[in-house]
Design a protein that fits this description.
Elements (H helix, E strand, L loop, with lengths): L2 E6 L10 E10 L2 E3 L20 H7 L4 E11 L7 E11 L8 E9 L5 E14 L2 E8 L8 E10 L2 E4 L2 E4 L1 E3 L5 E12 L10 E11 L5
Length: 216
């Protein structure tokens, strides 16, 4: 199974968007993640450092890559018009140990004012809340000293691998009630660029329902 994630953020008046720092998503109870047997590429290992370009990390973590995509960032430096920069994204398995809650790493590259890697973490753990059994928590670092904000992303997670002589998928799902329900208990934005008139922090909540159908 492939999981495709798309998102776009903007302000109603066109001013620079506060920076997304944390996104909490409660996933539908019919979705599951299992990384047991999947190779791991830890961000903390000596060969993954900010001096390595994105292409190099893609090669180093080749066996553990679970997805790719694109992200767009807007950079707002003092006394300058906002600049948009696009980046490819590499997503890899960063789970601590076999059987532990799934943890993914995502790396993008911002090339303004100098090439810098943006290393994000996505933790997926079990919860029991309403229609959800899994909670994903994505954390964004400070980008460009606080001047950068994520404005758009398009990610695709798909990975098949062999474990104990069986072919497994990192992501699985079934359609038991004709709909996938997602809730967003927390989308946390911080005004790190000190945009006039914007709150120092903004918390948004919401939900989403996507129709599905069973395949015989």
């Amino acid at each position: 199974m492939a999981l495709e994630l798309l998102g776009k953020f903007a302000t109603t008046d066109g001013t620079h968007l506060s920076a997304l720092r944390e996104m909490v998503i409660d996933l539908d109870r019919d979705m599951a993640f299992d990384a047991r047997g999947l190779p791991v590429c830890h961000r903390g290992r000596p060969h993954i450092r900010l001096r390595h370009p994105l292409a190099r990390i893609g090669k180093i973590c080749h066996d553990s890559i679970v997805g790719r995509g694109h992200m767009d960032f807007e950079l707002a430096f003092p006394e300058q018009a906002p600049i948009e920069t696009a980046s490819r994204v590499v997503i890899f398995n960063d789970t601590a140990w076999q059987g532990a809650p799934v943890r993914l790493g995502a790396v993008a590259e911002v090339d303004v004012p100098v090439p810098t890697l943006v290393v994000m973490s996505i933790g997926i753990s079990r919860v029991r809340h309403g229609d959800s059994s899994l909670r994903a928590v994505a954390k964004m670092p400070v980008v460009a000293g606080g001047s950068g904000s994520l404005v758009d992303f398009r990610l695709r997670i798909k990975r098949l691998f062999r474990y104990k002589r069986q072919t497994k998928s990192l992501v699985t799902a079934r359609c038991s009630d004709d709909v996938f329900k997602l809730s967003f208990p927390e989308l946390l934005f911080r005004n790190e660029a000190h945009t006039p008139g914007a709150a120092s922090s903004t918390l948004i909540k919401g939900g989403l329902a996507i129709s599905c159908s069973s395949v015989d």
